[in-house]
Model the fold of this input.
Amino acid sequence: MEMYNPPTPGEFIKWWYFDANKISARQFGEQLDVSPPTVNRLLNGQGRITPAMAERVSRVVGRSVDSWIRLQEMQDRWQERLRSAA
Done:
């Protein structure tokens, strides 16, 4: 069953990882080895979790690569529904 308005991967990361570990976006970017703008786009829902990014996030945050890709796919389907309904 499809989730209603699923969280973006970035929202999930903020809720699940940032709150539990008390880290900043800058620290997270350093752990991922990506630039601050890339981290900000991801966390603000403007960037997508690509397979390569899913590998990095999985290594740092945990959860499987597939789970990050599925979370992105759920968000993509939700956004497509919104566009189709407009």
User: Anything to note?
Assistant: The domain at 9-85 is CATH 1.10.260.40 (434 Repressor (Amino-terminal Domain)). The helical segments are 9-21, 25-32, 36-43, 51-61, 65-85.
